[in-house]
User: Fold this.
Amino acid sequence: MSFLWERIVSVSEHALRVGALVSLPTEEEVMEDGGIPFVVHTSRLPERKARAKREQRAEGSNPFLPPDPELVVDTLATGHVAVLNKFNVLEHHLLIVTEGFEAQDELLTVADLEALLGCMAEVEGLGFYNGGRVAGASQDHKHLQLAPLPLGPGPLPVPLDAVIPDGLPPGRIATVPALHFGHALVPLDGAGIAGLGADEAHRIYRRACAAVGVVDRGRPYNMLLTRRWMLVVPRSRERWRGVSINALGFAGSLLVRSRDERDELQLAGPVQVLASVVDGGPAS
Assistant:
């Protein structure tokens, strides 16, 4: 067991006891569409979370400057702090936050990817970045995220893996035929992230971003990283009929707030829902 994972578990247990961490209860189900076994979480978001967001906006405060000490897992040598996601749907969900303020719509740096890769070397998970509010970011202070796997009760740790073809050339830009919207997938070689340095990861990231037109600050997008591939998706809108979509949606994990939203999602089909929020995709 890694040091980081031990810290995540112990800090989570303590934060839950003192009320600093709020785990949102959800109903989980697998909703297959387009060959992807989507994990759909249905949760009535607690008033405590909504009230905290309203107060934060009214005060103009930044919950990451400084982060709640009860939620801090570790200080990283890259200039980042590993912090628990205060209102989590996925257990042991980690945020990797820049110590000083940097904007969430800025492109990632080598240091950002070094911090993420370091955490992923210790914890098998899905790393991701929501590049701006339109991409589903809830805070304006730059933070990457790491969700431990599996993402839910489905047959695969990452549902999207069901439709990623085998044998794609590592390091080259590819697309997934089952995803009928703009994206850039880069398979990693057999060593996965264990053999990927931060500089090389940053070069791959910039090439994937450029392939979908994300070349400057302010262009919304999602970046997803597993031990075997990187995915970048350009965004045009945050929501589909009130349902917020962030990077987790493109991995195959979606959150809705009611049974009615769940039923609408099933009727429309998750793949079509994702396409509706992608730059160049159909309108919702």
